[in-house]
Amino acid sequence: MYDIIIIGAGPAGLTAAIYARRAAKSTLVIEAKGFGGQIIKTPDIENYPVEQHISGLDFATKLYNQTVALGAEFIFEKATSIKDNGKTKTVVTPKSEYEAKAVIIATGSESRLLGVEGEAEFTGRGVSYCATCDGLFFRNKAVAVVGGGNTALEDALYMADIAEKVYLIHRRDEFRGEETTVSRLKERENVEIIYNSTVTKLIADKRLRGIEVTDKQGNTRELEIRGLFVAVGRIPENKNFGDIIELDASGYAVSSENCLTKTNGVFVAGDNRGKEVRQLVTATADGAVAATQAVRYISNLNI
C-alpha cells in the first residue's frame, strides 16, 4: 500500500513525486517508457525560471535524480486502468496491480505528427511543435506554421513578431480557428497564407533548410525556411482512464485548477489536463498542485 501512485514520469509527474516525498508520503511512479516525457526531445530550454539555458534531457535527468534522492520508487510498466475501491485505488499494469490511497495521472500528451519523411530526425533541428518554446531560435529567419486551428493561428501571429517571414499552411480553404485572429494575420505584411496545401517533403542537410508544399491540384512549391512549426493537434494520453475521470471532446482530462477530477482521490497534472497554456513551467506547477491536494486528501482519510 502506497500513499500516492503517480502515473507518468514527465515534468508534472516527477514534480508531483518531489512534493509527495517532501510531505513524507510513500510514493510510486509508474512510467511506460522512460523518465522525462516529451521534454527530452527539446535540445534547448531557455524559458524556465532560474535556468538560463539547459537541454531537455539534462533538465529531465536532474529532476529524476532529485526524486530518486528523496526516496520515490519507480516501476517502468504501462498503467492500463485504475480501479476505484473507495478509500483506496488500484493501478493495473500488464504485470501487476499496485494499491494506493491517492493517484495522480500525469501521462501528458503527444504532438500529432505530419507524417512526412524525416520529421522525427529533424525534430529539434528545425522541426518544432511549440512556437512559444522555440520561436526565438528563429529570430529574423523565415519559418512556416502548419495547421488550421487556434493554436496554429496563434503560433503564426506569435512568430510574425519574431521571424522575417511566416508561411501559414493549411490543408483546407478556411480556418477552424477564430476569424479575428485570421484577420489580424492577413494584416501582417510578413505573413503569407497558403490554402489547400500540405507539406510533402522536408529539405535538409544537418538542419532543416526548406520544405516542399503540394496543393490539391498536385502543384508543388519549395519554400526556403529554417523553422517548421507543426500545430495539427495533440493526443492526450488518457484513453485508459476514461471510466474514472471525465474527458472532454478532445480527450483531455476535465479538472479544476486544483487538479481535482470527478473521482475522489484521483488527480491529474500536466499536458493531459484541459487548460490554456501547456509549457514546462505549467506542467511542473500542476505537479506541485496535484501532489499538495493528494496529501491533503490523504490526511482526511480514515485508514
Explain this structure to me?
The protein has helices at 11-22, 56-69, 131-134, 150-160, 179-186, 280-299, and strands at 2-7, 27-30, 73-75, 81-84, 89-92, 97-105, 109-111, 127-128, 142-146, 165-169, 191-194, 197-204, 208-215, 220-224, 227-230, 234-236, 266-268. The protein is an alpha/beta fold. The longest helix has 20 residues, at 280-299.
Q: What is the CATH first-level class name of the largest domain?
A: Alpha Beta
Reported by name, the CATH topology of the largest domain is: FAD/NAD(P)-binding domain
SSE pattern, N- to C-terminal: EHEHEEEEEEHEHEHEEEEEEEH
Overall tally of structural domains: 2
Principal-axis shape: elongated
**Uncertain spans:** none
> Which structural class should the secondary elements be placed in?
alpha/beta
Compute the CA-based radius of gyration: 21 Å
Question: What distance lies between the first and last C-alpha atoms, to the nearest angstrom?
Answer: 11 Å
Share of residues in strands: 25-35%
CATH superfamily of the largest domain: FAD/NAD(P)-binding domain
Q: So how many helices?
A: 6
Give the second-level CATH assignment, the architecture of the largest domain: 3-Layer(bba) Sandwich
Mean pLDDT: 95
Helix content range: 10-25%
Largest sheet: 7 strands, mixed
